Amino acid sequence: MSLVLYFVSIFSFTFITFIIGKYIASCLKIENNDYQISNFAEYALFGIIFISFSALTLNFFTKLSPEVNTSFFIIFFLIALFSLVKNVAIIIKAVKYSILCSLITGVTLMFDNVNTPDAGMYHLPYVSILNIDKISIGINNIQHRYGFISILQYLSAISNNILFTKNGITISLCTLYSILIIFFFNEFKREKNNLLKFLSSVFLIFSLYEFNRFSEHGNDEISFMIYFLCILYFFKTIIYKNESFKKLILITGFSITLKTMLIFTIFLPIFIYFITKPKLKWFFNKVVFFSFILVSLWFLKNFLTTSCILYPASITCSESVIWSNSKKINPANPDKVSKSSEAAAKAWINWRNNNPEYKGSVYTYLEDVNWLKVWFKYHFKIIFKSLLILNFIIIFFLLIYRNIYDEKLKKIINLILVYNFILSLIWFLKFPIFRYGVGYIITFNIFCYLFFCNKIYIFKKNFVKNNSKKIALYFFIIVSSAVTLKHSIRIVENFYKSSQFPKITNKEVGIIKKVGDYFYIKKKRCFYSKLPCTSEPTHVGEIKNIYNYKIYIIK
User: What angle, 0 to 180 degrees and rounded to 10, lies between the N-to-C axes of helices 194-210 and 380-400?
Assistant: First the structure.
């Protein structure tokens, strides 16, 4: 694909997202005569949320085929564009932001790879299932990881259409990353409140450093960038008492569909209620209704695909439905998956590879071995490296910004500190892989500094009196330049490859077994396949077809 067509594809998706997002903001009354959105990147974020919600809803009734997806994009784009006919300034601004966003997306995505190994194991295979079938009941029975799906896979699936072809699968994910980077930069640039400026700056620089490669963009990294957004909206609501509460509700609902661990974000709006004691009318609006429907449909999807509302929490599972995954023989059994996932997070694979004489299994590892010792040996150094960089970023901004700590917000800061400490503790005790809890760990770290910054002399002293914003901007330029240089080296090394987009298929993987006309079992990772696919042993013995809904049943 030529370089021009590459950027035109990315620009087209981004521009459509901005226009749809502006329309949705008006429809949900996120902005009105009394309140106008000042951070233009939010429109694209709302567009992404609506597109993801639409993909989830449509898949209950139809497969997300290229024809269906194309119709959706054209219809809603034209409706949104027609509503803006008299507002040429907004359209021009959307074009400018789309160009900027496309440049970030284009450079980040070009000649990179998809996330390894998750994309090949279950992200891309599930996207292909969405493209070829409407919701597949019990699909988790052929591959337990299909129970860990994020709404990002629905965003990818609906972006595979005639306009963007299969390249839309990766364009949409990387565009969301670019939108969030632009959002944090806008907040850093325009925010007057020093606490919000400080938080935006840390979130921006850390995200640029830690999440700058597309091959690192699994479900976890983007999800926790959204969590950072929730924290920002939480404090905006406390400080400004404006429409940020609606945004917090919307982003909270979206975050729950991104990752099971983010179910705890539901506490942020609850905290707002008890802190500000708002009128009940705050909770009776279109945004709350939309978010409720989004989360409800997501839980329904979970139940239909896994027989659990929150997989693999067995307390939320039903054994009475015919697609139940509760049979012990099933690799997708919630109790087995919960134990094996916890063991894997606690360095089971490292232990197994270095102790081949061990006779136990993944299910006995936590009982037989001191996992903490193994975890510290292999996992802690990865976390320590990232925290070292984070601490440098935090200290840098604490030294250049003035009056970050507001005594009026003391109780709120302490609350968020304790909240993130509890979430970090849950992460450590259950699934201590860095990417599973990076958002909680980072936020806890930040608020530890905020807790002490008013008590330590060095943080009270004003090292920079008048040029803090300029110094922060120079720091951003240095970091973004380093990231761009890193991408440029990769682009130059691969410039003569036939396609700039990441590879999403794997033709080298052969079929071991084919069950009916419905799915393969492959030797390695499935990637994007023509039929539903798994790379693990399956005990599915029957596939029923009821009203054109496929139901995968364990024998």
Answer: 140
